[in-house]
Design a protein that fits this description.
This protein is mainly alpha-helical and about 140 residues long. The protein has one domain. Helix content is about 75%, strand content about 5%. It has a two-stranded antiparallel ribbon. Helix 1 runs antiparallel to helix 2, helix 2 crosses helix 3 and helix 2 packs antiparallel against helix 4. The radius of gyration is 21 Å and the shape is elongated.
């Protein structure tokens, strides 16, 4: 089920990621161009960069939580006394534990996975852009 969902949403996340990256770079560039001026355009660009960062954090944080929780699923089932249950329930839980050995990840196209590592890479890219723009 998760693989089917990931196949359906993979390209939606890719398009969303591409558009957000483009918007982030454009608003960051406009913000840097008007860095010494304090006008409504600078305020708009600053707030838009902030909104894009918060939105990216929100999506990547929850995708990371999905990955972390899926890794903990097998150990959580194992530690809850599954061996005292009836045979059919034991078999079902063992099957769930076997299947949950692979962690769940949300793809961005075929490029990368959503998560906090990607969010940090985006922030580092923005910081690098700011540093090199000021030279």
């Amino acid at each position: 089920f998760v693989e089917e969902l990931n196949d359906c949403l993979r390209w939606c996340f890719f398009i969303d990621f591409t558009v957000k990256s483009y918007n982030f770079s454009q608003f960051l560039y406009a913000l840097l161009k008007s860095a010494n001026k304090m006008n409504i355009e600078s305020l708009f660009n600053c707030s838009k960069v902030f909104v894009i960062i918060v939105e990216n954090w929100y999506i990547n944080y929850h995708a990371n939580e999905l990955t972390v929780m899926s890794k903990k699923l097998a150990s959580s089932i194992f530690s809850n006394g599954w061996y005292d249950l009836d045979e059919s329930t034991k078999k079902s839980l063992i099957l769930i534990m076997i299947r949950s050995q692979r962690s769940l990840k949300i793809d961005i196209g075929t490029i990368y996975f959503l998560g906090t590592k990607l969010f940090i890479k985006i922030l580092k890219g923005g910081y690098t852009f700011i540093v090199f723009y000021n030279f």
